[in-house]
Design a protein that fits this description.
This protein is an alpha/beta fold. It folds into 2 domains: about 160 residues, Rossmann fold (3-Layer(aba) Sandwich), CATH 3.40.50.300; about 80 residues, no CATH class. Helices cover about 30% and strands about 25% of the residues. The chain has a 6-stranded mixed sheet, sandwiched between helices. Strand 1 and strand 2 form a beta hairpin. Helix 4 crosses helix 5. The longest helix is centred in the last third of the chain and has 18 residues. The chain starts with 20 loop residues before the first strand and ends with a helix. About 40% of the residues are buried.
């Protein structure tokens, strides 16, 4: 792939006709008691079908804000986000969101938590129960279907949360630092599990992280963001073979791309 997304505060997004998302001259300003705070400034980018795209940048740079605007959870102050050619005005069932915490209800079993979106949508739970059990098995929770969240580790809770968002089969997954609170070993295992699911389903994934190694390991492209107000410093194509295992981190190209991002963030 070649980077074909324009950057900076004066550019226009270069988009393909089959882009899943197009973000055009996006600004986001929050109004506080002490005055307006600009979180995002002139963001232009496209998201391609089936790609794994990551946002990386320092804390407070607007990564999660950008994801929430793309999801339709926050309105843009200026500019536009379109999803399959239509302006994003509100959340869509075609867009699944996974947050930094698992948000599991403690009084519901793991299976009941996974089935919750089906209840909310008013769909037939019985028709989805077998699929929910299959997804829990796919993320290694086949023995915990009737367990409660308190009986699961943090990593297991996040696996259940991932199964929940996959159950209703959204076309796009938006993941907001879903593994940030996990230990390094569990985090690596979750990254591998996520890549397996992404490879098997062909879904478009947008992933927010402040971990540079994680962004490079997972992604087709990495959007590097500046400190607040968040702008796009560069969209980096990740030139690493797939499928990927942890061994890819030994590849010289992996180290080079990690270092390039570190330089862009001023932490080299």
């Amino acid at each position: 792939m070649t980077g074909d997304t324009s950057l900076g505060t004066s550019g226009s997004p270069t988009s393909s006709r089959d882009s899943v998302f197009e973000v055009s001259h996006l600004y986001k300003v929050f109004h506080t008691d002490s005055g307006p705070v600009m979180a995002l400034r002139d963001i232009n980018l496209d998201v391609r079908p089936g790609e794994f795209l990551s946002f990386v940048g320092p804390s407070g740079c607007g990564k999660s804000t950008l994801l929430n605007v793309i999801a339709g959870l926050l309105p843009a102050s200026h500019g536009e986000v379109s999803f399959k050619g239509q302006p994003v005005k509100e959340p869509s069932r075609d867009i699944g969101m996974m947050f930094q915490t698992s948000v599991l209800f403690p009084w519901r079993t793991v299976l009941e938590n996974v089935l919750m979106p089906i209840e909310i949508f008013g769909w037939d739970k019985k028709a989805y129960k077998d699929r929910a059990v299959e997804l829990l098995a796919a993320v290694g929770l086949e023995s915990f279907v009737e367990a409660y969240p308190a009986q699961l580790s943090g990593g297991m809770q996040q696996r259940a949360s991932l199964a929940r968002v996959l159950l209703y089969d959204p076309a796009v997954l938006l993941l907001d630092e879903p593994f940030g609170a996990l230990d390094e070993f569990t985090r690596e295992n979750m990254n591998l599990e996520l890549l397996k699911i992404w490879s098997a389903t062909g879904k478009t994934v947008i992933f927010v992280t402040h971990n540079i190694n994680e962004a490079v390991f997972l992604s087709d492209r990495v959007v590097v963001m500046t400190p607040r107000p968040g702008e796009v410093a560069k969209v980096l194509d990740v030139d690493l073979p797939r499928p990927r295992s942890l061994q890819v981190m030994k590849d010289a190209r992996f180290g080079e791309q990690v270092f390039e991002i570190r330089e862009l963030l001023g932490v080299a």
